[in-house]
Amino acid sequence: MEKQQNPLETVHANIAKACKIARRDPDEVTLVAVSKKHDAAAIRPLLEAGQRVFGENRVQEAQAKWPELQENFADTKLHLVGQLQSNKAEDAVDLFDCIHSLDRMSLVKALAKAFDKKHKRIECFIQVNIGSEEQKGGCTIADLPKLVAAARNSDIPLAGLMCIPPQDIEPAPFFALLDKLAEDNGLSGRSMGMSGDYETAIMLGATHIRVGTALFGQRA
Ligand SMILES: *Cc1c(COP(=O)(O)O)cnc(C)c1O
């Protein structure tokens, strides 16, 4: 009987397949395992299997969970994928290695200040409200050039752009648009694609995919 793949192996196989079709090198795609709402017991098997990049969406939850896990897996990288309040910027800079949700001028200022104070600069993705949705986080497409310029002026290391496309509609056009916006703004990284659409995102240039449910199962 064939050995059953675990979820991490399945995701790796799907990444490899999508990269092959897109003629891309799988090393260009970073899998961010989004472990929000999952506890240390759920996370540890992935660490033991070699996964080293994880995503969390709340600073406080990450502060509670990760320091202990990182004692045994010191080379783990933590990415903040959720909205960041300016008053949590310093805490975020302490704990995280990358922020995917830089989306406004006030946060550029708060992060620049936190970087100076902590003598540490971490890479940031600018989140774009790619579907121009009323409720969604992310800067508008119109505001993007200004925000990119402000981040560069404040010595914020920019990794690229990030988006969460509207739900229940084909994501490919939104991924293609983010890819174009990144190119127009001279940015190399594209954080796009989640459990339901990461293969599509890879075909359209994703460099960072943020996958939760496909690795950990449904969240409570
Ligand atoms: C929760 C979350 C994900 C992961 O979503 P899944 O559908 O569970 O893969 C990715 N990105 C962000 C910003 C999230 O908040």
UniProtKB/TrEMBL annotation:
Record family assignment: Belongs to the pyridoxal phosphate-binding protein YggS/PROSC family.
Cofactor names: pyridoxal 5'-phosphate
Modified residues (N6-(pyridoxal phosphate)lysine): 36
Limits of the Alanine racemase N-terminal domain: 8-219
SUPFAM superfamilies: PLP-binding barrel (SSF51419)
CDD domains from the UniProt entry: PLPDE_III_YBL036c_like
Keywords: Pyridoxal phosphate
Signal peptide range in chain numbering: none
Organism: Parapontixanthobacter aurantiacus
Transmembrane segments annotated in the record for this chain: none
Function: Pyridoxal 5'-phosphate (PLP)-binding protein, which is involved in PLP homeostasis.
Protein name, UniProt field: Pyridoxal phosphate homeostasis protein
GO MF: pyridoxal phosphate binding
Pfam families: Ala_racemase_N
